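Lay summary. Proteins are chains of building blocks that fold into shapes, and those shapes determine what they do. In this project we predict the shape from the chain. Here is one chain we studied, written as its sequence of building blocks.
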Amino acid sequence: MDYKSSLIPDGNPMENLEKQLICPICLEMFTKPVVILPCQHNLCRKCANDIFQAANPYWTNRGGSVSMSGGRFRCPSCRHEVIMDRHGVYGLQRNLLVENIIDIYKQECSSRPLQKGSHPMCKEHEDEKINIYCLTCEVPTCSMCKVFGAHQACEVAPLQSVFQGQKTELSNCISMLVAGNDRIQTIITQLEDSCRVTKENSHQVKEELSQKFDALYAILDEKKSELLQRITQEQEEKLGFIEALILQYREQLEKSTKLVETAIQSLDEPGGATFLMSAKQLIKSIVEASKGCQLGKTEQGFENMDYFTLDLEHIAEALKAIDFGTDEDEEEFIEDEEDQEGDVSTEGKEGHQ
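And here is the predicted shape, written in a compact code that computers can read:
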């Protein structure tokens, strides 16, 4: 249907609306689907694809498959360069608001021309056509109602003038709505960009935070291994000393046991001369063995390992206090550390003096 031919003559304001719905490529009313460019201008997707293909003749191969790389073309309205991804114009967002306005406009255009015999008639005066508008009651009516009927005292105006006025008002409202929708679309695009940047920034700071905590974990693991090694070394030294003492005492016990057995055998000797020949030397050996029992011993609390205890409460509190701070907080923290290091170095110098 040719909607241009159905426009109301004499410069009807609906012409202004239709001009906003004309594609700058085909110079016809937009054909759905309608796509919106990054510069906020609209095109029929078919027209957009035509100029895209013209600007990128090698974008589609002979088999009809889409190239993995994108392309670019310029907006016919503002010459803004539009960069496409591998989806081409099918990656552009549809402007559903413009499509809805086109549907409403077409419905209005189709209902505007009044066919003969279909002119609305007055309910009170069935033979009279509705040809005037009651400004007081804000309803269309007929001339008979003004002369003889319910609208005698009302102010009226020609139907066509009110019709043109309200059409103009509706047209202005639609234009205003379209402009508002364009602004909203721009805001949505800005917010989407803000959302994307926020996600990227969040990912970056998360990565940095993870790296810093991984470094802390590495320091703690290294210190843990160092301290455990010291405990293990002390344990081995103490166990070596104790095991050496056990060996010495076992050797002494073995010698004493053999002397006891020899002494018992000597006591069983019936002959006095034979007994006396070995008794003196045996008694001497037992006395010396008794004196030799004074081997090394462990001191009281030798097995104690309490001196390896750590007081990590202040470090735990410091870890709990870790939080995101400003640059001023970091500078104050660095200054406090430098002051503490200065105090320690001063105390060390005084101690040497």
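What the prediction tells us: Helices lie at 14-20, 45-55, 96-111, 143-147, 159-267, 272-291, 313-320, 327-352.
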